[in-house]
Write a structure and sequence with these properties.
Elements (H helix, E strand, L loop, with lengths): L2 H5 L5 H11 L4 E3 L7 E3 L24 H11 L3 E8 L2 E8 L4 H10 L2 H5 L1 E4 L2 H20 L2
Antiparallel strand pairs: 1-2, 3-4, 4-5
Helix pairs in contact: 2-6, 3-6
Length: 146
């Protein structure tokens, strides 16, 4: 999937499922009610919504900041995460952690890896976070050859 294709992903169940599987490490299973698509098949439903009467739907990573923040917590182990508001919407920038600031600056100046992630701008913060996370995870898999 290219960055252009990722930037066209809309917020909703399909992107939520992609985040759950590729970023959060969820094992997806078909929901018992086909109208809901897939849900989390992990022990204790780790990637499901937590509500009083609904506990079997996949988390709304791309539309709810509470769940999008879980994505940030996950990816910040490997990337410095910067989220800020812009005139055009919300921006999310992921930068791989390096040994020191000088090394990171060299990476930004000379390596193409940084350009693969770039800055993602979207209408909402959760959508920007999800698109940036998918870009980073899929780019890493291409680099590793997965």
């Amino acid at each position: 999937m290219t960055n252009e294709e990722i930037d066209k992903l809309e917020a909703g169940p399909e992107l939520d499922a992609l985040i759950a599987e590729k970023v959060m490490g969820c094992t997806l299973v078909n929901h018992v009610n086909p109208k809901y698509g897939v849900t989390c098949g992990c022990a204790y439903g780790a990637h499901r919504q937590v509500q009083e009467h609904i506990d079997d739907l996949l988390a709304d990573y791309s539309t709810d900041m509470t769940y999008a923040w879980k994505v940030v917590e996950r990816i910040r182990l490997a990337y410095a995460v910067q989220i800020d508001e812009r005139r055009a919407g919300w921006a999310c920038e992921l930068t791989p952690w390096w040994e020191d600031d000088a090394e990171r600056e060299l990476q930004r100046m000379f390596a193409s890896e940084y350009e693969k992630y770039g800055i993602v701008i979207a209408e909402t913060a959760p959508l920007a976070i999800c698109r940036a996370a998918i870009r980073a995870v899929l780019s890493q898999k291409q680099v590793k050859g997965d």
